[in-house]
Design goal:
256 residues; mainly beta; two-stranded antiparallel sheet
């Protein structure tokens, strides 16, 4: 993991990051035959929030640094729901859903200087994700899990004040769950994994302050849950689903 916006040369540094964020939200549940059951969608500007972080780079040698980062984010807003009444067809039901999405991650890794203006690195880490989906019928579904992270990064000092970065992370959930308030049940989700890729630009305003912007694509594939007895002779389960969210972020980085 590399420190976005840090000079590619090896040096000790600690940075505090504050950004405003917005999410292009795209979620879809599918049945056993691959048919669409329901979707949640929102364009940029409808689900907004904030991201806070701290990151550090510690000198190892003239060409290498040990790097760490901790990031916490929260977004909330409405999505456009499209689904079906019981026994109906997809698209028969359209409503609005309230959403709360919280995430954190900790990463640690090594950065290597491979040229005067280029550094590459790799990281391992842990994270967590919670998405609360308040449906129009009064049911609130909360999806949550912790996850492992394995990733890589490249930073290019395009100009003396401008650093461009690319990132790629593999994500594997541990013990993913979904709790339904109306059923009073918690479902064990199936195998859940994904990836995250992003681009970033960091422009140095002063020796200690930078402007930083990011675009990040965050993908998760969630497999069907276990079957739960909900009483009255009925059973329920959470179907297969995919989340394809794109984050736009803009904020300030203070180095000390």
């Amino acid at each position: 993991m590399l420190i976005a916006g840090a000079c590619v040369s090896s040096a000790n540094a600690t940075e505090i990051v504050t950004k405003i964020t917005s999410v292009n939200f795209d979620y879809k549940e599918t049945g056993d035959s691959g048919q669409t059951l329901d979707t949640e969608k929102a364009s940029l500007g409808k689900i907004n929030g904030i991201e806070l972080g701290i990151r550090s780079s510690d000198y190892i040698s003239p060409k290498s640094d040990f790097v760490q980062s901790f990031t916490l984010s929260y977004n909330s807003g409405n999505t456009d729901y499209k689904g079906a009444y019981q026994g109906g067809n997809y698209g028969d039901l359209t409503t609005t859903t309230k959403n709360k999405l919280a995430k954190f991650s900790y990463k640690a890794g090594l950065k290597l200087k491979v040229a005067d203006s280029l550094a590459v690195g790799a990281n391992i880490g842990v994270g967590g994700r919670s998405w609360r989906r308040e449906l129009n019928d009064g049911n609130a579904e909360t999806y949550y899990w912790s996850n492992w992270i394995l990733g890589a990064r490249a930073d290019w000092e395009a100009m003396p004040k401008l650093t461009l970065s690319t990132t790629a992370d593999w994500q594997k959930a541990a013990n993913p769950k979904m709790h339904s308030s109306s059923e009073g049940q918690t479902f064990d989700l199936g195998d859940t994994n994904g990836y995250k890729v992003g681009i970033s630009a960091n422009y140095k305003l002063t020796n200690n302050l930078s402007l930083e912007g990011d675009v990040v694509y965050d993908y998760w594939k969630i497999n069907k849950s276990n079957v739960v007895d909900i009483g009255g002779g009925y059973v329920a389960w959470e179907p297969d689903s995919k989340t394809k969210n794109t984050y736009a972020k803009l904020g300030l980085v203070y180095k000390f």
